[in-house]
Amino acid sequence: MPRQAAHRPQDAAASGAAQHRLVVVGAGFGGIELVKRIRAPDLEIAIVDRRSYHLFQPLLYQAATSILAPSEIAWPVRQIFRERREVETVLGSVTAIDRAARRVHLADGGTLAYDTLVLATGATHAYFGHDEWEAVAPGLKSIEDATRIRSRVLRAFEHAERADDAAERAALLTFAIVGAGPTGVELAGMIAELAHRVLPQEYRRIDTRTARVVLIEAGTRVLSTFDARLAAFAHRALARDGVEIRLGSPVTDCNARGVMLGAEFLPCRTIVWAAGVRASPVASWLGIAGDRAGRVVVEPDLSIPSDPNVFVIGDTAAVRWTADSSVPGIAPAAKQQGAYLARLIASRLRGRPLSAPFQYRHQGSLATIGRRAAVIDFGWLKLSGALAWWVWGIAHIYFLIGARTRLAVAWSWLWAYFRNHPSAQLITEHDSDLQ
Question: Is 186 a catalytic residue?
Fold first, then answer.
């Protein structure tokens, strides 16, 4: 017998008023911002996610490269909303949506009834038709991804320390990052920092400074969405830190032995994928067509074309920004969409529908290069170098949840900055990593 949606004590029978049930699928930036901001009488909220935590994804690469512990960038959803008695947290995976019956179906057989539904389920890695590459070239979207990549990177040095064959040792000490967007640039810079500045004194048989960090990009420059001058600075800074940058080099194959770049084979044992994303399967759940990236093309108020009670936000939505571009899939955009929906839904419940469409305000683009430099493009202000790194750090600390987390992250960064020693240099076991 399928488990039906739970009814809270303050339901219609107890309060004497009809409860409006809002179901939010996804505890990312958009979903969390919506639930945090919305306040309305007779409103019952369920927030659903297949993970129990909200993740600060912009710093995920730092967990993958030992600078931060996963607990410093993730917070239990139940803890975030423990003071909100009208908010129910549901740990579960969505498998289907019945819009006619207004029900969300979960993998455990349960269902959740809704009056208003918001889908904020984000995106996953895109391998451009080669999903089999994921086993050898993991992407970076979750804590599990971060700890897996961290273990692979650190384990590569451990195996190289024991390797007698020179060719095998060289392959173990070669790290390939596919994709030169912000995530790829940040990963390449931090792995180079580990190899060239942090680890040399910790190994006896190998010189970790001989490690190769290869950043592979099919396009013509790194950070293609940034100002050209900032992208050029990032290129120079990466090269100065020892990163090899291969532009115009689309990947044609990945396997356990290395990467094919056209007809050239690059032997390496650690590959990280940062080349693209695809939306979660929201379009198929709703029975509507998505765009080429699988995103749902939404109306100006972020609802889907055929149902004003269903909204899609964040990386899952294609939201018009300018005549020839969509709102970028970044955290500030998702937070703005969540805040807008909080106002819109609350206004509807008060009987005063909000007529203004969603308007995105671009707050800038930021990326770090290693632990001592960054590039920042605020439009009106462009910064690069050490000053940009400090501005980047202050901005990220500001958006973290809770004073304790801000202090912990600030301390970890300062320790790593001045002592050259990461705070989370741990190898955790994953079956796919054991050799």
Answer: yes
pLDDT at 7 over 50: no
Q: Hey, do 12-50+92-125+278-349 and 131-275+371-433 end up sharing a CATH topology, with the first three levels equal?
A: yes
Place of tokens 């964040």: 314
Q: What is the 3-state secondary structure (H, E, C) of 154-194?
A: HHHHHHHHHCCCHHHHHHHCEEEEECCCHHHHHHHHHHHHH
Amino acid at 180: A
Which whole-number Å values give the CA distances from 404 to 14, 416, 418, in the listed order? 38, 18, 21
> pTM for the full model?
0.88
Does pLDDT of 233 surpass 50? yes
Domain range annotation of the chain: 12-50+92-125+278-349, 131-275+371-433
Q: What is the average pLDDT across 116-127?
A: 93
- By the 8 A CB rule, do 268 and 174 touch? yes
pLDDT at 17: 54
First and final CA of the chain: distance in angstroms? 44
Q: Which pLDDT does position 67 carry in this prediction?
A: 83
Torsion of the alpha carbons at 319, 322, 324 and 329, rounded to the nearest 10: -40
Domain 12-50+92-125+278-349: give its CATH architecture.
3-Layer(bba) Sandwich (3.50)
Q: What does the pLDDT average to over 307-328?
A: 92
Q: Where are the beta strands (DSSP E) in 364-421?
A: 365-369, 373-377, 382-385
The pLDDT tens digits for 354-363 are: 889 999 999 8
Q: Work out the angle between the directed axes of helices 228-240 and 182-193 (0-180°, nearest 10).
A: 20
The one catalytic residue among 33, 88, 186, 193: 186
CATH architecture type of domain 131-275+371-433:
3-Layer(bba) Sandwich (3.50)
Please report, for the chain, how many H helices and E strands are present, in that order.
Answer: 12, 27
Rounded Cα distance, 265 and 226, in Å: 30
